[in-house]
Amino acid sequence: MSILEVKEVSHSYGSSRSFWRAPKEVQVLSDVSLSIDEGTCMGLLGTSGAGKSTLGKVILGLEKPQKGQVIFQGQDLYTMDTITRKRIRRDLQVVFQDSYSSVNPRLSAEKIIGEPLENYERLSPAELQRTVAHLLDMVGLNAADMKKYPRQFSGGQLQRISIARAIALKPKMIVLDESVSSLDMVNQTNILNLLNELKSEYGLSYLFITHDIRAAYTISDALAVMEKGKIVEVCHDKNEVFSSQQPTVKNLVASILPEHPRNRTLTSRANFSANSQ
Ligand SMILES: Nc1ncnc2c1ncn2[C@@H]1O[C@H](COP(=O)(O)OP(=O)(O)OP(=O)(O)O)[C@@H](O)[C@H]1O
C-alpha cells in the first residue's frame, strides 16, 4: 500500500525580473508521478539540477506545485484544512544535507531534538529530557550529549542529531535530501546502517534524494531516476537498474563499474552489491 503518491506534478520558478527582460517561468518539474510503498525506501537519483530537491520540497509542503497532487496517507496535502495539515505534517519529516546550517548553532542538542516535541506534545520537563535521552540513545549518541552545542559535534554526529529530531514525533515517512553526501565513507556507511535499522524497526518509509547511486542502492528498495524535471525511469526492484536501457540510468550504472570493459561483468555487479551492504 502506498504511503505517498505524487500525481502529475508540474512546477516552475519565476526567474528574477531584469531591466531588459520580462520575468520568465522556468519549468522545473513536468508531470512527475511517483509512488512510495509503506515501510520502503525510494531512492531518487538524477544529475544536478534535475529537480530532485524541488520534488522533495513539493512533497514536504514547502513549495506549492502549479499542477498535480501530493497524496500522503490517502489525503491531498494541498487541499486539506490547516488542522489536518498540522496533524499530517508530524508524520512527514525531513533531514537535509548540511546539518550545520539546518540547526540553530545557539541551541543545545536537547533544545534542537526537543523542539518538535514541545510544538506537538505536552510533556513535563522531566519527560521531555527522558525522551531526548532515549532519542540520543536510538541514534547511537549519549544522553550527556544533550548539553552540547552544534559546534561541539562532528558532521556525522550532527547528522545523527538531525535524525533524532526527525524521528522524535514517530513519523511515518522521512525525506532525506542528500543526507549523507557531505560525510566521509565511514560516516556514510554508519548513518545508512542507522537509517536501515530505524526503517525495519519502526516501519518507516523514506524518500532518499541523492546523486550518489551507491548510497541510493545501499538503502533503497526501489529507485527512480530524474532528468530535466521528469522521471525517466522507475525500478520497483532496485536491481532492475542493472538491466535498464534508459541512457541516463546506464550512465549512472557505468559510473560505478570498473574502468576496464573486461572487468565490467556480472562479477562487478556482485562486488558493487557486496560493497554497498
Ligand atoms: N527557489 C528557486 N528559485 C528559482 N530557481 C530554482 C529555485 N530552486 C531551484 N531552482 C532551479 O530549479 C532547478 C532544479 O533545482 P533542484 O535543486 O530541484 O535540482 P536537484 O536535482 O536537487 O539538483 P542538485 O542535486 O544540484 O541539488 C535548477 O535549475 C535550480 O537552479
Strand content: 15-25%
Mean pLDDT: 89
Secondary structure: helix percent: 25-40%
List SSEs in N-to-C order. EEEHEEHEHHHHEHEHEEHH
Major sheet description: 6 strands, mixed
Please count the beta strands (DSSP E, at least 2 residues each): 10
The Cα radius of gyration reads 20 Å
What is the count of structural domains? 2
Low-confidence residue ranges: none
CATH fourth-tier homologous superfamily of the largest domain: P-loop containing nucleotide triphosphate hydrolases
The backbone outline, from C-alpha atoms, is: globular
Strand line-up across the major sheet: 6-7-8-3-9-10
Could you characterize what this model shows?
There is one protein chain. With 277 residues, the chain is α/β, with parallel strands linked by helices. The protein has 2 domains: 2-91 and 177-185 and 205-276, Rossmann fold, CATH 3.40.50; 98-170, no CATH class. It is built from 10 helices and 10 strands. It has helices spanning 52-60, 82-89, 99-102, 109-120, 125-138, 155-167, 185-202, 213-219, 247-254, 266-276, and strands at 2-14, 25-37, 41-46, 67-72, 75-76, 92-95, 173-177, 205-209, 222-227, 230-235. A 6-stranded mixed sheet has the order 6-7-8-3-9-10, sandwiched between helices. Helix 4 (109-120) runs parallel beside helix 6 (155-167) and helix 5 (125-138) packs across helix 6. The protein starts with a strand and ends with a helix. 35% of the residues are buried. Residues 13, 26, 28, 46, 48-54, 211 line the site of adenosine-5'-triphosphate. InterPro entries: AAA+_ATPase (IPR003593), ABC_transp_ATP-bind (IPR050319), ABC_transporter-like_ATP-bd (IPR003439), ABC_transporter-like_CS (IPR017871), Nickel_NikE (IPR014137), P-loop_NTPase (IPR027417). This is Nickel import ATP-binding protein NikE. Keywords: ATP-binding, Ion transport, Nickel, Nickel transport, Nucleotide-binding, Transport. Residues 4-253 form the ABC transporter domain. One of its GO terms (molecular function) is ATP binding.
